[in-house]
Design brief:
mainly beta; YefM-like fold; 2 domains; 4-stranded mixed beta sheet; 4-stranded antiparallel beta sheet; 8 strands; 0% helix; elongated
């Protein structure tokens, strides 16, 4: 059995979609029906473009804004981080009241506290592991 094929000239398939990008929301002149658009200024994804244009709604690709909070006894004060001389794996954390506590983090992610770690009031320390605890009074 032999198959014979006939050449079909000027056959055009359906147009594919593309991903467009630019600063700010897309203008109607950008892209074709079915395209998606990424706003590089605001990290927003628009699409798909329809015959009537780009949708006014978008998907934000930015997560929620978070803000760290300090324990009540140091609210409003600043915390300074500084490398410890002679120890590349250590950082000194100095609170604005002058109390210095040294936290050492090694390459494996192990943490040690040198000095006194004081917790007062209704404080929650989620995920805190305490080893070699010594009662100092």
């Amino acid at each position: 059995m032999s198959l014979q094929f006939q050449s079909i000239a000027n056959l055009v398939g359906p147009q594919g979609i593309s991903a467009q990008s630019g600063a700010g929301a897309p203008t109607q002149a950008i892209g074709n029906v079915g395209d998606i658009y990424f706003d590089t200024t605001n990290a927003r994804l628009y699409g798909k473009k329809t015959e009537s244009g780009w949708p006014t709604t978008y998907v934000s690709l930015v997560g929620p804004t978070t803000q760290a909070t300090l324990p009540n006894d140091i609210t409003g004060n600043s915390i300074t981080l500084a490398p410890v001389s002679g120890d590349a794996n250590a950082v000194a954390i100095t609170l604005s009241n002058g109390t210095t506590t040294l936290f050492k983090v090694d390459a494996a992610g192990n943490t040690a506290v040198s000095g006194t770690l004081k917790v007062t009031g209704a404080t929650t320390l989620a995920g805190l592991t305490v080893a070699n605890l010594t009662n100092t009074g």
